[in-house]
Amino acid sequence: MQILQLVPFHCLQFPNMSRHEEPERLRPGPIRSRNGWVLFVRGLPRETRETDLLDAFSDFGYVQSVKLHRNLNGTAKEYALIEFQEQSDAQDAINRMHGTQFLRQIIKVDWAFVAPVSDQPSLPIRRGSF
């Protein structure tokens, strides 16, 4: 009969890593998507257009995509996903756009995908309902 021994996660060895280094996917903070760094923007006015967001956020760097979700009647759902190529550009956009007025409304800007701050490994946190 074989006995299965449970090993705490922090004792596992990963190839090409020092003993005290965590795999990058488990470090707290923003997580890169397949193509770039995604921001979650909320509090947008219903009349917001993709071009409005592109104009405002392209000041911080190359914007790969803007996804503004809409209701059946065509009005914006008050949130959008904006993907930057570079993490530093996305961070700059967060720092300068969060809490500012955009088309007469105060918007909130943060990372769309972040790794939780925890000792236990878990799935990334996804913000918003999409």
TrEMBL record:
Q: Which Pfam families match?
A: RRM_1 (PF00076)
GO annotation (BP), single: RNA processing
Q: Name one GO cellular component term.
A: nucleus
Q: Which UniProt keywords apply?
A: RNA-binding
| Keyword RNA-binding in annotation | yes
RRM domain ranges (all copies):
37-114
Classify the source by domain of life: Eukaryota
A GO molecular function annotation here is: RNA binding
Q: Kindly provide the name given to this protein in its UniProt entry.
A: RNA-binding protein 8A
Give the organism, scientific name: Fistulifera solaris (Oleaginous diatom)
